[in-house]
Amino acid sequence: MSTESQSGDDLEDRVTSFLRRNFPQIQMHGGSASITNIDRESGEVDIQLSGACSGCGISPMTIQAIKARMTKEIPEIETVNADTGMEGGHSGGMSPSFPGETSDDESETDEGPQAPF
Length: 117
Description:
Layout: H1 3-22, H2 24-28, E1 31-39, E2 44-51, H3 59-73, E3 79-83
Parallel strand pairs: 2-3
Antiparallel strand pairs: 1-2
């Protein structure tokens, strides 16, 4: 096994350990964090949060914390890309809608549920 491969495996192990150690609430709340890619040359890591993280209101804060802490704790990591699949535009995630909110299609308006009185 080459030195490059061994250091690469070590980096992946350290990222995995970092996530388990610093963010146990992800798994405790029914979510999961997986490494989808590590680019050792650029120091970039891609992480996918899934399960209960998709649609969780605090997942954006969790992502910010992961990004801030990981780059400080693991010197080889310079950039962290984390996604729950809920960001609009590139991931095909859903975006919230609110009663009375207008959209591109003005013909349909959602007034929300009607009061029973």
